[in-house]
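Give me structure tokens for this 410-residue protein.
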Amino acid sequence: MSIAPLYDLTAIRADFPILSRPIRGRPLVYLDNGASAQRPHAVINAERRYAEESHANVHRGVHTLSQRATDAFEGARERVRRFLNARSTREIIFTRGTTESINLVAQSYARPHLQPGDEILVTRLEHHANIVPWQLVCEATGARVVVVPINDRGEVDPEDVRRLLSPRTRLLGIAHVSNALGTILPVAEMIAIAHAAGVPVLVDGAQAVPHLTIDVQALDADFYAFSGHKLYGPDGIGVLYGRESLLAAMPPWQGGGDMILHVSFEGTTYNELPYKFEAGTPHMSGAVGLAAAIDYVEAIGLSKISAWEAILLTHATERLSRIEGLRFIGTAHHKAGLVSFVVDGIHPHDLGTILDERGVAIRTGHHCAMPAIATFKVPATARASFGLYNTLDEIDALADAVVYARDLFR
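Here you go.
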């Protein structure tokens, strides 16, 4: 199949040093971007330059390096603000990732509001990071988690959200894109339904930000969370966007340095936003690397990336559907660049091992989304997730490797 990409794919691939590394003597075919995307030279070099030229602790020092580090760190915050189209940097909280962002909202926003009998509404598609934090606060408060179902294509009907909202619903937690199935949820419509009932919404955007243009004002999201390592950036850095009026009313989640203005044994005065939620020394080089990753994807253009990944998805769906015994898990009408599947007679873990011997890296298991996978009555799936640097030839290599594995088990 020959389709010209929407950008210089050869040049882009040269930006990612790991893609030229062979695996088991074969060219690397990296199709595990939904777990962690690879990093371009621009991100690697930005972190190195920070370490070599500007590293010091932020906000507290009057010396030159501290001021350089602070400028770089706060410059990264402004870069994230523009990326999400947030109103203010006061709405941008740096965290360790999507998981910590959701836990922050669960503990600082939800827990103080929950009473016995209250409800947190989530969908069956959610990653464990958007399930377990709500279970923890519900166990502590006597509230309960209510689940929005999915259909046999792996889709969520917004009308089910409307039906399950109740006077006791205190928050709706939804994925923007399913990490296990690739489903793109109609989050704007779901947010509008929840807001009409007076219910705030948290969106898990970990799988959305590498593929879609995000505008938190247009979405009218109350909270939006994502991680740097899915966005071709560093690990250990993430973001929580929060509506300023909500963040201002929330108590700190963690205590320590930088989240305070004054401390005595008689009491403590907390810092202003966003620092109230950033206790301790932050991941400064990670923030710098995240800003570089945002620069990188926006220089290519998220619309072009999304369009290319749609071509990859179409090709993968067509090639894999020809394989006897292969069944797709999750066939939503609106999907990101991801296919989840099983092959008759082969456990996904065995399939993944055989593919690795041929240089093809995929993810196997329940993908930290056990309830979603269990809906399809399978214990696990094989998942190939695409990124901006993947090629049609790599999709063909995936399909050929799956055929090889199937024949090996016959």
